[in-house]
């Protein structure tokens, strides 16, 4: 009987020790598990920003997107970049998807400054802050935190000064316009205001080229046919200026019709270097992109953000091309 008691006691002691070891192992494992969970619990979800560009095919917007991306990386933001490609209905769908995805902010380069207003209002109702880059919203009843763009009025003045200088302050000129877009409205306004101070220069035509080379080519052809004595053309962007250049060359009037453009993309710079386009207004699209993300970051941090931030422009001429500027 004593022997059986001793055996039973040894068995109970062994099992008790084994139970203690298991409890210790579970306790240690639980501690490791809690330590493993702590960083995940403290990690913040990445801030997502929805971006809808006017287009991704133009060098200007490629540079603007590069600026957005660089500054977003610096802040640890995730960008969802889409493009309307001049189609406001497509752009509206993109903004609607951003709202459904509950992004932290929306950046829009409107395809149509007025029509996009309903989409901006929808974002306002959803409590998502909206920022505009390059092109502003002109619709009523919308709230945009900040608009970051070139000083297009000043840029238009630079273009007018260049064309007036090239023509010696005298001549008949045309504007290839794109009035659906706010940035173009501003640069044409600056151009016309400056030309109003030049009594020897007369604007004889202002027609839309839709901001695209092929449409601008056809518009320029119509203008040249209607005005055989035309001396100059202002293209509101380089696609307009290059389309006008193609029409002028086709009409055999190169050297008689002076062209000034806006943007100074590589193809236009080459045309300026060759003397086929007189000058271009240079913007800073990468800076616009960077400053846009900085505005978003400031707003999300609770800082006061300027409602408008304008980036200066400068002129690019054949002399600048020769100097490698």
Report on the structure:
The chain has 325 residues and is of the alpha/beta class. The chain has 2 domains: 48-149 and 285-311, Rossmann fold; 152-283 and 318-322, Rossmann fold, CATH 3.40.50. The chain has 11 helices and 12 strands. The chain has helices spanning 2-42, 59-75, 88-100, 117-125, 152-167, 182-195, 213-226, 238-250, 266-273, 285-300, 318-322, and strands at residues 48-53, 78-83, 105-108, 130-133, 146-150, 171-177, 201-208, 232-235, 258-263, 279-282, 308-311, 314-317. The strands form 2 sheets. A 6-stranded parallel sheet has the order 2-1-3-4-5-11, sandwiched between helices. It has a 6-stranded mixed sheet with strand order 7-6-8-9-10-12, with helices on both faces. Helix 2 (59-75) packs parallel to helix 10, helix 5 (152-167) packs across helix 6 and helix 7 packs across helix 8. The longest helix is centred in the N-terminal third of the chain and has 41 residues, at 2-42. The radius of gyration is 31 Å and the shape is elongated. Mean pLDDT is 89; it is low at 1-15 and 17-43.
Structure in a nutshell:
This protein is of the alpha/beta class. It has helices at residues 2-42, 59-75, 88-100, 117-125, 152-167, 182-195, 213-226, 238-250, 266-273, 285-300, 318-322; strands spanning 48-53, 78-83, 105-108, 130-133, 146-150, 171-177, 201-208, 232-235, 258-263, 279-282, 308-311, 314-317. Residues 1-15 and 17-43 have low confidence and may be disordered.
Q: What is the fold's blueprint, element by element?
A:
Layout: H1 2-42, E1 48-53, H2 59-75, E2 78-83, H3 88-100, E3 105-108, H4 117-125, E4 130-133, E5 146-150, H5 152-167, E6 171-177, H6 182-195, E7 201-208, H7 213-226, E8 232-235, H8 238-250, E9 258-263, H9 266-273, E10 279-282, H10 285-300, E11 308-311, E12 314-317, H11 318-322
Parallel strand pairs: 1-2, 1-3, 3-4, 4-5, 5-11, 6-7, 6-8, 8-9, 9-10
Antiparallel strand pairs: 10-12
